[in-house]
Amino acid sequence: HLLSSTPFFHTQNSEVIQNNPEIMLSSQRLSGQESAYEYKPIDGLQGPCKSTLDEEHRKKMPCIQAIGQCYPDYEFTPETFEKLYCSDKFPYDAKIKDWVKKLVHSSGIETIPSSINPAQFDEPAIPYDPEIAVDEHNLYRRAKDPWCPTTKERSLIWEKFAPKLTIGAAKDVIREWGGDPLSITHVITNTSSGTHMPGLDLAVVDALGLRNVRQRICVDNTGCYGSFSALTVAQAFCAAEPDAVVLVTCTEVCSVHINKHSQDRSEILGNIIFGDGATSAILSAGKTGDWQMSPIRMITAPPSTRDYVTVKLTDEGYLLYLSKYLAPCLHTAVKPMWRDMLKDSLGVKDSHDCDWAVHPGGKAVINVFHQEDLELNLSRDDLEPSWDSLRHHGNLAAPSILLVIKAALERTKDTGKDKVFVIGFGPGMVIKYYGLTRKE
Hints:
- The structure is a single chain.
- The chain is an alpha+beta fold.
- The chain is about 35% helix and about 20% strand.
- The protein has helices spanning about 10-20, 55-60, 80-85, 95-105, 150-175, 200-210, 225-240, 265-275, 325-335, 340-345, 365-370, 385-395, 400-415; strands at about 65-70, 75, 110-115, 185-190, 215-220, 245-255, 275-285, 290-295, 295-300, 310-315, 315-320, 355-360, 420-425, 430-440.
- Strands 1, 4, 5, 6, 7, 8, 9, 12, 13 and 14 form a ten-stranded mixed sheet that branches. A two-stranded antiparallel ribbon has the order 2-3. A two-stranded antiparallel sheet has the order 10-11.
- α6 links the parallel β4 (about 185-190) and β5 (about 215-220).
- α4 runs parallel beside α8 (about 265-275), α5 (about 150-175) packs across α6 (about 200-210) and α12 crosses α13.
- It is globular.
C-alpha cells in the first residue's frame, strides 16, 4: 500500500463501515462492555514474582564485562543553585529561599554534571528575540518568559547532548571491555529526561558502525530504575541467545528542566538534585571469575504510592517530583524483606556477607540503609560507593546505579568479598534488586 496510490483503507471497505455503523474496527471502546471477570485491586507490597523455571533461568544469567561513563563539560554546585533560587530571577519568598540554602548545603552533593553552562545565571536576561538561536550558553537567559524556556527550547538542548553523552559512554565501555565492537549483537538504550525518534539506539549504532547488531531497543521512561529495566531486557537477550554480546546505555540530561514556576518543595527538590550524564555496560555469557548477575527482581508498592516519584510533561519542560514520603516508603518495604532479598539474589543471610550498591537517590534515601531498626548494621564506609556518587554527581537517575556498581566492584579488591548486592527504586513506587557473584 505504501508504494501505490491506493488508500490503505480501501474505499469500498470504508463505505461498508459507514453504511453499517454496527460494524466497528474494534469491539472494545473506552465506553465498551463491562468485563465478566472481577479484577481485584492490589493491597500491600506486590512481588517479587519468580518463574517456575527460576533455577534453570539463573544458569543462563549473563555477566557484566565492563561499565563505562560520560559527562558533559559543565557542573552545578550548591552555590549555583543558591545564587539562582535566592536571586530575583526566581519568584520565591524568603521562606523558600532560606529552605533552598539549607537544602543545597546539606544535601551531600558537591557537584552535579550539567550540559548547561551555569555562567548564564550570572548574567542578566536577554531581551527575547526568536532570531537568537538557543544553545547551552543561553537556554535560560533568552527565554520569552525570563529564565523559563519552553519545552521545545529545552528539547533542542536535550537532542544535542543526549546522543553525545550516550555515544561517549558507549565508547568508554568498549574501551574498558577491550573486545571487538563488531561482536556486539544487541544494543539497548534508556532515558527518561527527553525523547526523540529515531531513538538513542540508532545514534549509537550509526556513530560506532555496529553493523552486526541483531536487535536494538529503547527502554525509556522508567526513571531511576531505568538501568534495571534495560538490564532485564539484556538478560532476556542473553538467555535466548547464548552468544549474545549486549551493549546497554543509560542517559539523562536533567539540567534542561529547571523551572522557576515550581512552587512545591518536592518539585524544587527535583530541580536541584538531578544531573546529566550517561553510563553503559557490556553483558555476555562470560567466563569463570566474571561478575555474573542474578535475575532482576521487582517489588511494587501499593497504589497509594504512585505519586511519590513522578515526571510529568508541561509547557515548561518535565516537572520532576520527589515526595517527602519516598524515603519512609522505601524503609517500610526494605525492613521486612532485605534478608529474603539477599538470600534470593546471593544466597547469603547477613548484610556483611556482601558489598552493597544502593541507588544514590538522595541523602535521605541512602540514610534509610543506615537506620538501626533495619538491623543491617551498615556503616558509612559500607555504602561509600553510593555516598561518593551522590557527592560528585548528584542523582543522575538511571545512570547512577551503574556508577555505584563500578565503584563497588572495584572495592571488592579491598574487602575481599565476591558478592555485591544491588538495589534501586523509581516511579511507581517500584523497588528492584539483583546480585553479582563471581562466576564458577
